[in-house]
Amino acid sequence: MKKKIFKIGVLLLIITASLTAMVSCQDVFDVEPENAIDYKNNFRDIYDADAAVNGIYGQLLSVAGQYEVLNELRADLMSVTANADANLRQIENHNVTFGNPYADPKPFYSVILNCNDVIKNLTIMKDNNKITQTEYDQRFSDLVALRSWLYFQLGIHFGEIPYVTESIENISDVKDAAKYPRIKLMELVPKLIAEMEALPYKDPYPESSSLNTQIDGYPTKLIFINKYCLLGDLYLFNNNYLQAASAYKNVLETTTPLGQGAGYTYYNTYMGTSGTDNDAVSASAWQTFLSRSPQDREFQAEWIWSLFFDKNYSPQNPFINLFSNNGGKYLLKPSQVAMDNWLSQEQTNGTPYDYRGPDNSYKIINGQPVIMKFLYNYLNSTTGLPTNILEKSGKWFLYRATQMHLRYSEAANREGHDKIAYALINQGVRATYIFNPTTTDATQKQGTFLPFPYDLDGRKIDAPTIRGKHHRNLGIRNRVSVKPSLIDSAQYFDMSQKRFDKPVLDEVAYTQYMEDKIMTEAALELAYEGNRWQDLVRIALRRNDPAYLADKVYAKLLKEGNPEAATVRAKLMNKENWFLPFRWE
Amino acid sequence: MPALAQQDSTRSEIGTNSAVINQVRKYSGLKVTGTVTNAATGAPLSNINVAIPDYSAALTDESGRFSLDVPSFKVTINISGQDYQLKQVSLQGLNSLTVALHEKPFRSVYESAMLPTGSLSKSQLPYAITSINPAGSWARPIEFTDDYLQGKVIGLDVIRRSGTAGQGSEMILRGFNSLNADNKPLIVVDGTIYDNNSYGSSLISEHLNNPLAHIDIKDIDNITIVKDGAALYGTKGANGVVLITTAHANELATKIDFAAYGGVNFAPEKLPVMNSRDFRLYLSDILKTSGLTDAQIQDLPYMNDSPSNPEYYRYHSETDWQDQVLGSTQNQNYYLKVTGGDNIAKYALSVGFLERDGIVKETSLKRYSTRFNADLNLSPRLTANTSLAFTSSEQALRDQGLDFNINPILASLVKAPFLRIQQVTNEGVESPNLADTDIFNHSNPTSLISKVIEQDQNYRFFGSVKFNYAVNKYASVSSLVGLTFDRVRENIFIPRLGVTPEVLDNSIAYSRLGNRVQRLFSLYNDTYFAYKRSWTGGHTLASSAGFRFQNLKSEEDRAYGYNSPSDDFTSVGTGAAALRYITGDIGKANWLNTYLTANYSYLSKYLLNFNFSVDGSSRFGIEATNALTIGGNKLAVMPAIAAGWLISSENFMANLRVVDLLKLRVSYGLSGNDDIGNYTARQYYVSQNLFGAQGTVRGNIANPGIKWETTRKANLGLDAALFNERLSLTADVYKNNTSDMLVYESVPVATGFAYALSNNGAMQNQGFDLGLFSRLVDKVVKFDVGLNFSKYQNKITQIPGDRMLTDFAGATILTEVGKPAGQFYGYKTEGIFRTEAEADASNLSTRLPNGSLASFQGGDVRFMDLNNDQIIDDQDRMIIGDPNPDFFGSLSGSVIWRKLSLNALFTFRSGNDVYNAVRANLEAFSTTQNQTTAALNRWQFDGQNTNVPRANFGDPLGNARFSDRWIEDGSYIRLRSLSVSYALPVKTAIIKNASVYASGTNLFTASKYLGFDPEFSAAVSPLAQGIDVGMEPQYKSVHLGVRIGL
C-alpha cells in the first residue's frame, strides 16, 4: 500500500511539475504574430526605420482627396457639379453636419499616430546605437515636419484640435485624456514653429541617404516634405515676415551650395524659369510642369514636394473621380469666378485670356469645364479622353517653386519690399531691377542688392561675365506671356513728386493693394493645388477682416446662382464658422 | 425518431479508461430478489444482467427471477440485457423488485452519456445533457453530423447554411453568447478537440469549408451535448460542448457491415418570374423612366417584333432560365465496416464513399473516408486506444450570395426570358456555342453552370493515441496525444464568355482565376490522473485532474489572377501578370487548460459535481484584470458546481410506483470564450505600400488587458419518467450571462484608429427547454412520439455607447442595450400612394444623394414619417423585424412493428423574421433585370388599386430601401426526415442480417416565406441572422438503401 501511495505521489508530482513548468515558461503564451510584425521585432535596424518612413508616406497618400476638397472647395476657385453628393455640397456651402466624411480628421490622425510612433522608436533606436545620430536626425526631422504639416492642416480646418505628440500604443493610452490636449489654431502655430525651429536637420535627405532612391520610377526625393517651405508657411501665418522670407529664401537657395558648376540645376531649381537652359520665355512649358515625368529635370526644378499615384498600386488616385468626366464621377469643377479670373487677363500678344486657364488649369470637355491640373497623366490633353480608362496614374501637388515666390513676395511686401513682390509676380528680378538711378555701374543693376533674405541677384552680364543665381527668373506672369499686373500709381503714389522713388500715399492701403495682387496671382497660378483656403484664412486673420474671406466665397456662390450665397457670407463673417464641426470625443 | 440506445456495460468504458482491475468484495449478507419482464408483453426475461457496479452481479433465470447480494436496501440496481434497455432501480428500502424492461430501441432516461471522464447514465448526471446514439444512422445515411443534429437536441438551434452538400449548419446552443467571438459549441471527438473553424474566407462566395463534413455519421457511436457543465473545457466551453465518440469494436468476433444507398434530389419549386411578354412590357415601362423616348424604345432590338428584323431571333425566345440552372440530381453512398479482434487488440475499420450532387447543376460533393479505431491491451495495467481518421473530399461548387452576375441561381432569375442560351444567326440558326453576355450586360446562366470551374479539394487527418496506465484498482493515469492536419485547396475559374466582367480598380476583369490553400495543424495533449471508487457505504467518486494543451497553427494563402489569354487557360499563372496578386494569413495560438473534475454521489441519489479549470492562452493580454497570475501570465479561473437529487430514489417514493424517475438538477458555473483574436493584446505593425515598396505602419491599438469572455451559466432542471418510462419529460430553465464580451470600442479620432477591441460588452440569454417522450402504444406495434421545444430570450446588456448600427447585405442591424441581438432596423411602410393626389397630400419627400429633396409621387411606397418632419430619412427608421425565433424544436414519431420500423422527424421554428434580400432585388422594379410576377401588379396609372409600387429606373425615391416590405415571417414546419426500414428475414452462414431502407429528407415544408426556402444562414454572427442572400436552397431528396451484415 505504501508503495502504491508512493507511486501515486510520484505521478502527481510529475504532473504538477510539468504543469508548473508549462505555465511558468513564458514562451508558451508568448506567441508572436507571423502575419504582422510584432513590436519586439520591428525597429531593429536602419531598414526597419526606412520602412517605417516609407509606410508613413504611403499612408499619407490616403488624405490627398480630402486635402484637395477641404482646401479648394471651401474657398472661391472650385465648385461642385450637378453630380456632387450632399457631403460635398455641405463643404461648399459651409453648412457641414456631423458625419460628413470630408470633415473627418481621422485619416490625418492615422498618419500622425504613425509619425509619433516612429519618432518614439527612432529615439530608442538611436539610444541603442541601432542607427547613427545623423540617420536619426534626418528621419526624426522629416517626421516631425510631416506631423507639423498635418497639424497645421487640421488647425486651419478644425480650429481647435487635440494635439497629440506621444505614441498611442495601447488601450490605456486611449483612455488617458491627458494625452489629447486640445489646442486652438492661434496657439498651435507658435508651437509648431518652435518644434520646427528646433529640428536638428532642416535640409532634404542628402543624395547619399538610403531613403533617397527610386521606387517604381518615382524619385523619392520629391515625396518628402520640405521643412523650410512649411516653416515659411507657419511664420507667414504667424505674421513673422522676416523669418518667413528667410525660410522661403532658404528653399530658393537649395542648390546654391552646389555652385554654378551645377549648371541647369543651380540656375533653374525653384527659380521660376520656363524650364529651359536659358532665360527665354516659353509659355507652353507651363502645362508640362503638370504633365511631365517626375524624372525630368524640368519637373524637379519646379516641384518641391509632390506625391504620386500609380495605376498599379493602391491607394487609387482620388482626383480622377473628383475631376474627370471621363472615367471619373466629375464631382468638382472650376468655379465661374476662377474661370473669369483667367478670362479677364490678357496675353502679351493681345490674346484675351490668361494662358494658364483655358486648356491648362481647366479644359472644356464635352461642354463641361474640367479641372485638368491633376489629370494630365490620365486624360489626353488634346482630346480630353483617357488613354486607358482604368489606369489612373497621377500626381498630388503640394509645394511648388512659384508658390514659394508668391509667399516670399507676400512676406517681402509686408516688410516694405513691395518691389520684390512686383518683380516676382510680373517680369522677374532682372527685368524689374534693370534700372538703378543711383548708379551707372552695370554690375550694380539687375538685382536687389539687399541683405538676406531679400538678396536676389538677377544679373546676366557678359563683360564681365556675371550670371546671378536668379538671372533665369522670368516672373510668374512673364513666364506665361501674360501682360504684367500694373500698379495704379496715381492712386497709391504721390505723383506730384518728381523723384524716382515717389512716396506712397497710404502705406497700409498700398501694402494691402500689393497683397491683393499677390492673392490674385496665386489664384491664377496655383489654383487647385490646395492653397486657396489657407491663403484666404491667413490674409483675413492678418487683416482681422472676416469680410475678406466671406466676400470671396460669397462672390463665387453668387456667380453660380447658389441660393445660399448670402447665408454663407453672413456665416463666414464670424471667424468661428470658418472651422469644421467635429465631435472629438 | 427515438435514439437507439445501446448501453452495454462492457462498452461504456471504451475510449475512455478501459483499464479496469477486478476486485473481490466481502458481501453484507443482505439479498434482494425479484423478477424482470418484458414491458410490452409481460413475458419473463432470462439472462438479464442485474448488478450493483463494483459490488455484485446476477443473471435472471428462465422465469425472469434473480437474487442479488446488496450492501443495503437503499442502493440502486442496474438492470440490462443485450437487446434491452438499461434501467436503474432504487430499492427504496424494499427487498424485492419487479422490473419491466423495454426492448431496444427505446429512448430511456437511463441512457448513458459519454463524458470526458467516462460513460455515465444520464440519470446520474446533474447537468443538462443530451445523449444521442446514431447507432449507425443506417436510415439516414448521407446526413452530415451537424445537419443530423437538427431537431435532435433540446436547446440546440441547428440552422442549415444552405442546400449545398457538406456546407453544414450553424449550431447555436441556447442562444448567442457573443457578438464578435465564436458562437459555435466546442466539438470534441474521441477526446481530442476537433477544430471546427473555417480559416479565412473562400474564393467561392458564401462557400464555407465545414470540417464536420469529414466525419461519416455511420462512424459515430454517441454524441453527447453538454449544455451547462462546460467549465470542463474552460475558456473554450462557453457555447457548450459536443462530445463525439466514434465506433470501436464491441465484440471480438469479426463483424462486417456493408451498406449501399442511392437517391434522388428534387429541384426546388421555381420562383415566379415574368415571361417574355410581361417582361417586355415591364422593360418598356422602366426604360421610359430612364429617360428614353417611345421612339428610342421602339428602336431597341428586343422591342422590334418583325421577323425581318435581323436581331429578331436573338430576342424572341422563351427560355426558362431556372431550368438551366436547377435540376434533379443523384446521390450514392457505400460503406464498409469491419470490427473484431482478440483479447490483445480490437479494431474497427471503416471505409466509405459518398457522392452527393447539388440541385444546382454540375455541383457535387465526393467524400472518401477511412477510419481505424483500435483498443489495445498492452499489459495488464497498460492499455491504449487509437482513433485515426483520414478523409478526403472534392466539391464542385458555384458562387452563392447576392451577386446577380456570378451566382447562377440569381442570374437565372434576372435573365431576360426572351434571350437564347446559344448564339443564333440572323436567320435563326442556333450555334452550339453559348451566348455571351447580353444587351443588358447580364451573364448567361448556362455559362455559369457549364463553363465556370469552382472546386474545393480538402482532406483532414485527425488522429489520436491514448495510453492508460492503471496505478491501482482505483487510480489511473492517461495521456492522449491528438493531431489534426487539414488542408483545403480551392481553385476557381470564371470565364469571359457569357459572364459579366468585374470592374477592378485599374482594369476590367473579363475572366477571373483564383487559387487558395488553407492549412491547419493542431497538436493536442490531454494528460490526467483519474480516481474512481465506489465505497460499500454508497459513496462513489469519479474524479480526474490533468491538463489539456493545444497548439494551433493555421495558414492561408490565396492568389488571384485575371484575364487569362482565353477561356482555355484556367490556372492562376496564366492570368495577366500585372493583375496577379497574392495574399494570405497566418495564425498561431497556444492554450493550456488545467482541470479538476469530481463527480460524487451518495446512494446514486444525491449527486454532486464539481468542475474547476484554470486556463492560460497566448491570446490573453498580460494585463488582463480579475485573473490569476502565475509567472506573469494571466489565467482564467472557471469553477462550476452542480447538484442533483433523485427524489424518486427516496424511500417515501416507494409507494408511488408510477414514478420511475424524478430528478431535480441545479447547476451554476463559469465558462469562457477565447476567440478574441490571436494577437489582440500585442502591438503590431502591418505592411503599407509606397507604390511598389513595402513600408510598415501600426496595425492596431494593442489591448494588453484583453481577456476571455466569461459566460456564467445557471440551470435548473427536472427529469421525470412515469408509467415505466412510457412517459418521460425533461425540462430546464436557464440563464446565461456573458460578461467581458468582446466589442469593437470606438476610440477618440485623435488616436488615428476608429476602434480598439475591448471586453466592454455583456449579453444575456434566458430560456426554457422542454423535452417530452411517450411510448403511446406498447404492444406488438410500438408507437413513440417525442417533442423537443426550446425558447430563449436574448438581450444585450452592455455595449459601448449603448447602441450600434451595422450593415449586412443591404440590411441595417441594430444592436442596442436591452434588446435582442440582430434587430432589423429600417423603414416602416403603409402601402403605396395610389394616386398623385394622395402623394401630394402627404407632402412627403426624400433626400436625394445630392442633398436635395424629391417628392413622392403616385405609385411610390408610402414610408412612415416617424418624426413628422415630412422628410423620409435615417431618422424615420425603427425596428421592423427580429430574426430570433420565438421558439423552435421538433416533433418525432416512430412506429415499430416486428421487423418494420418507421421514423419521422418534423422540425419547426417560429416567429423568426427574415430579410429577403433576394426579393428586395427581384421586386425593386428599378433595373432591366427580370423581376418576379409581382411586377404584373405594379402601379401604372393614377388610382390603380394595387399595393405594388411603380417601376422607376434607378429607384431615386428609394422605394426598394431596407423596409418592412422585405421582412417576412421565416416560421416553418418541415418533415425533416422520414424513414422506413425493414429487416429482411435472412440468416445464412454468410449473411447474418440484411435490411432495406427507404428515406426522404425535407419531404414537406409549410411556410409563408416567399423565397425558395426559409432555412439558410449567411454567417454565424448574431448580426447576420435571418438574411437571405441567395444561398442554394434546401431541397427534397429520397433514398433507397440496403445494409448487409456478414
Describe the fold and architecture.
- With 585 residues, chain A is mainly alpha-helical.
- Chain A contains 25 helices and 13 strands.
- The longest helix of chain A is centred in the first third of the chain and has 26 residues, at 133-158.
- The model of chain A has no long low-confidence stretch (mean pLDDT 92).
- In chain B, the strands form 13 sheets. Chain B has a 22-stranded antiparallel beta barrel.
- At the A-B interface, α1, α2, β1, α3 and α5 of A face β28, β29, β30, β35 and β36 of B.
- β1 of chain A pairs antiparallel with β35 (684-690) of chain B, so a sheet runs across the interface.
Quaternary structure type: heterodimer
Count of extended strands of chain A: 13
Q: State the share of residues found in helices of chain A, binned by percent.
A: 40-55%
Radius of gyration of chain B: 31 Å
Unreliable stretches of chain B (pLDDT < 50, length at least 5) are 1-23
Radius of gyration of chain A (CA) equals 28 Å
Number of strands of chain B: 57
| Mean pLDDT over the residues of chain B | 90
**Main sheet overview of chain A:** 2 strands, antiparallel
Broad shape of chain B: globular
List the chains of the largest interface with their residue counts: A-B, 82 and 75 residues
Which of globular, elongated, flat, extended, rod-shaped describes the shape of chain A? globular
In terms of structural class, how would the helical and strand content of chain B be classed? mainly beta
Q: Class by helix and strand content of chain A?
A: mainly alpha
Total number of helical segments of chain A? Answer: 25
How much helical structure, as a percent, in the residues of chain B?
Answer: under 10%
